[in-house]
Amino acid sequence: MSTVDTVDVADLDAELGSLLTGSLTTDPDILATFSRDESLYSPDGTPLALVRAHSVDDVVTTMRFAHAHGIPVVPQGARSGISGGANAVDGCILLSVKSMDRILAVDEENKTVTVEPGIINLDLKKALRSYGLAYPPDPGSVAMCSIGGNIATNAGGMCCVKYGVTREYVREITVVLADGTLTRLGHRTVKGVAGLDLAGLFTGSEGTLGVIVEATLKLVPLGPDPLSALATFPSVKAAVQTVAAYMATGATPSLLEMMDAKTIGMVNALGDFGLDESVGAVLIMQSDSTTAAADTEAFAAVATDNGAHDVAFADNAQDSEMLVAARRSAQPAWEHYAQAHGGGQLLDDVCIPRSAMAEFCDRVDAISDSTGAMVAVIAHAGDGNMHPSVFFDTADGASVARAQDAFDQIMALGLELGGTITGEHGVGNLKSEWLARELDEGNRRLHRSLKDAVDPTGILNPGKMLEHL
Amino acid sequence: MSTVDTVDVADLDAELGSLLTGSLTTDPDILATFSRDESLYSPDGTPLALVRAHSVDDVVTTMRFAHAHGIPVVPQGARSGISGGANAVDGCILLSVKSMDRILAVDEENKTVTVEPGIINLDLKKALRSYGLAYPPDPGSVAMCSIGGNIATNAGGMCCVKYGVTREYVREITVVLADGTLTRLGHRTVKGVAGLDLAGLFTGSEGTLGVIVEATLKLVPLGPDPLSALATFPSVKAAVQTVAAYMATGATPSLLEMMDAKTIGMVNALGDFGLDESVGAVLIMQSDSTTAAADTEAFAAVATDNGAHDVAFADNAQDSEMLVAARRSAQPAWEHYAQAHGGGQLLDDVCIPRSAMAEFCDRVDAISDSTGAMVAVIAHAGDGNMHPSVFFDTADGASVARAQDAFDQIMALGLELGGTITGEHGVGNLKSEWLARELDEGNRRLHRSLKDAVDPTGILNPGKMLEHL
User: Of all helices (H) and strands (E), which one includes residue A299?
Assistant: First the structure.
């Protein structure tokens, strides 16, 4: 680690603020509003300043200044993350690229788009529609998350079962390194093996290796409106068997989500969804292919063969969106439930082999029973990406402890079943100790060596993903 | 770089050979046969020894020994590469993992297979058929190349237009690092963002970061037999326009290949394919979806709209394979032509934006005219991955120089058009100087830093991909 200079506000303005097209702020009230992402119960610190970059040059200037003075830098996009990855650390510069939100070029023939990092995912999707093109990755926070943050966390979402994760759409990125060096990584072409895959290395690096200032992304043709089906099952086991049997047919649903009985009840309590609360689980499936109607019927047949009580079809886009809306309301429904039950919610994000989903859900129930912590589960079932949500009373220390215990036991269970502690939400500072448990010693050493090589003074997002390796 | 000890043959046997389950050889005749891959005109050196590893322990033992003595190690699979990446360097240990060729586990429900690195790609494909599963990546050398080598080079092939490259199938790899440390990178689950994407970093690293000793790969359900169509065009331009128009429909062909007029003539000269030699180009398209028959008709309609002379359909698997056989025979046909015209052939591998293919082909013709070197072109047209082949007389120094000039001008053209010097064949020692031209200074510095971090004594495959950065 470098030595941190003492920098006073006058120096900051003279040496950094006055050089920026964007702005530099040291107002404590403003700093406070920028000091956290959307995660709960993650630690944060007190920043030195906030830079709102308006250009690549602003990012270069900020990194040069920070590097020269040994000041930590926390890159920020829309701060919609939920692992604490964008939280302030003491004495840091918060470097926000949210205002750098332009679409720089749409290449229709090669189906790529070049953007600045601050553009909101949904805004990009909307802008591409008029070109007949689509950018598939759709994190739950699609309406508020930025593309730069999506790349920095290799974001997932509900469409991954067909379209894969953000990494598969990143062709080329321009990054500013710790010392202010500007460099272009990856390639714009469909294929390319010239050198190490550094665009891939920086994707998902959570701000620890560099600041993403531009990206060229792969697009796909905008498909037809999707159609959906919702199947109810007597048990999670029957739902999970359906997932296995359906995926074994070679099906390519654009969404395949599971909700457990507890979540179904909470969703009904939030909105007028009319879901049957007597069931053990529901699966919601969507197809956006040209054979969508046949796809939903094929899904229904497999569900029925595997013991589904009932399958509801949506034969038009509007009804289809209503079926999926039940799933989209799960997180708001959880928050609604939490607010009525002590306010606390810890959302987990374990990805396991699909074949282990039934055992996982059984054992989460057992963890809930043994700890006394209420746990509800939804899943990107086609990917085995489980989102158990642990509820607790924030005013009750024992309840908080039980919830933390359950949360930890769920991650341990994920590892035991051959899975990972995070399928899509990232490590941040919430799971950095658990990352050290997941990786073997050789892998931890590689991480440390690579971080030292790319950011030798350790100023980029310290205390986060790589902290405990 | 480390200091290289002087190690005599007796020491080698005592300190290394005697510890191996596999074998250690210093016989110069055997070493000579293992000193090159399939590339032409690439430099090679004189190895110290060949280790044929039979186990992970053999690889660990070899790397520990080499690390302790500062001896370079060149990892080898099937040596089917064509960029010199597996060629010997002076005083090295050739570390062959070809005998480590077992399938360790097929996980049908999660659709993964775990293999040793030496297994031949086609043997893996055949073994998976009985499970109803497929491993899509299909380099031209599919019948002789190993999965470990495919991962080390991030191999491509003809199916990439639908299925992507090797990287998209690598879930988890076990590697032996330069000092003999064994570590597991990546994750077996569909999704996973715990830590940096080190499995991705090692994929395509061409033996410069570690030795791959095990891999867990994503599989897909075995699809129906594919159907094909072959369209003839008056010009490369018409063929390229067809590719653009067809891909814009959102089509997902499993193969979309172009051959130019020169190659068509050479293919006819090799075998009895009966291709119309008066045309300017052909496109061969294949679909392996359940709607294959409709797909070939949709392709034919687009081709006709874009000026195709004629479209031939194959309505069964056998006829379909015959159409594709013409494309598969391009490389043998080129070799046949080369042998009758001085024996020399340099195969290039430039990937460019699809939109630049017509200009690329025009300017390759101009390069051919200005240098006097004969150049024929085939392309993985759906990906913009161009394979110009430069022919020359190996006994005529002026002819060799013209060919090298043309080869270099083609790479420069690829870069000028926004492409890369290698879409799938890799850098090796054939293109390591060109890699330095493609990457900017920040990117080159990152490469150097990362290599130093992972292999601080520089023993892993020196003189290859990273040599000139």
Answer: helix A292-305
Residue B97 per-residue DSSP state: -
The yes-or-no verdict on residue B4 having pLDDT over 70 is no
Euclidean distance between CA atoms A372 and A229, whole angstroms: 34
Of A174, A196, A172, give the one whose Cα is nearest residue A183: A174
Calpha distance A449→A466 (Å, rounded): 11
Other beta carbons within 10 Å of B351: 28
Note every long-range contact of A318-324, with CB atoms under 8 Å and residues 24 or more positions apart, other chains counting. Answer: A319/A228, A320/A225, A320/A226, A320/A227, A320/A228, A320/A286, A321/A228, A323/A228, A323/A229, A323/A230, A323/A284, A324/A228, A324/A255, A324/A284, A324/A286
Chain B stretch 2-61, residues whose beta carbon is closer than 8 A to a beta carbon of chain A: none
d(CA A87, CA A91): 12
The domain segmentation of chain B, as residue ranges, is 9-99, 103-221, 224-329, 341-426
For chain B, how long is the longest CA-to-CA vector? 72
Alpha-carbon gap: A454 to the closest alpha carbon of chain B (Å): 7
**Distance (Å) from the alpha carbon of A83 to chain B's nearest alpha carbon:** 12
Q: Kindly determine whether residue B107 and residue A183, on different chains, have CB atoms separated by under 8 Å.
A: no
Distance from CA of B181 to the nearest CA of A (A): 6
Is-same-fold flag (B103-221; B224-329)? no
> Which of A154, A418, A449 is facing B193, going by the closest CB pair?
A154
Could you give the 3-state DSSP secondary structure of residue A281? strand
Residue B232 bridge partners (DSSP)? B282, B310
Q: Which residues of chain B have a CB within 8 Å of the CB of A195?
A: 427, 435, 438-439, 443, 447, 465, 469
DSSP per-residue string spanning A167-220:
GGGEEEEEEE-TTS-EEEEE-SSS---SS--HHHHHTT-TTSS-EEEEEEEE-E
Write the pLDDT tens digit of every residue in B386-395.
999 999 999 9
pLDDT (tens place) for every residue of chain A, 469 residues total? 445 666 777 789 999 999 999 999 999 999 999 999 999 889 999 999 999 999 999 999 999 999 999 999 999 999 999 999 999 999 999 999 999 999 999 999 999 999 999 999 999 999 999 999 999 999 999 999 999 999 999 999 999 999 999 999 999 999 999 999 999 999 999 999 999 999 999 999 999 999 999 999 999 999 899 999 999 999 999 999 999 999 988 899 999 999 999 999 999 999 888 899 999 999 999 999 988 999 999 999 999 999 999 999 998 989 998 899 999 999 999 999 999 999 999 999 999 999 999 999 999 999 999 999 999 999 999 999 999 999 999 999 999 999 999 999 999 999 999 999 999 999 999 999 999 999 999 999 999 999 999 999 999 999 999 999 9
Of A156, A165, A193, the CB nearest to B154: A193
- Residue A369: other Cβ atoms inside 10 A: 10
pLDDT tens, position by position, B50-96: 999 999 999 999 999 999 999 999 999 999 999 999 999 999 999 99
Instruction: For A112, name the nearest residue in chain B, comparing CA atoms only.
Output: B353
Neighbouring C-alpha atoms within 13 Å toward the C-beta of A305: 12
On whether any CB of chain A is under 8 Å from the CB of B454, the answer is yes
Residue B443 sits at the chain A interface (C-beta within 8 Å): yes
For the domain bounded by B9-99, which CATH number is listed? 3.30.43.10
The domain A9-98 is placed in CATH, from the list 2.102.10.10, 3.10.350.10, 1.25.40.10, 3.30.43.10, at: 3.30.43.10
Give the whole-angstrom CA distance, residue B76 versus residue B54: 13
**CA–CA–CA angle A281, A283, A289 (5° rounding):** 180
CATH fold for the domain made of B103-221: 3.30.465
* Whether B280 contacts chain A with CB within 8 A: no
Residue A349 corresponds to which tokens in the numbers above? 């994000």
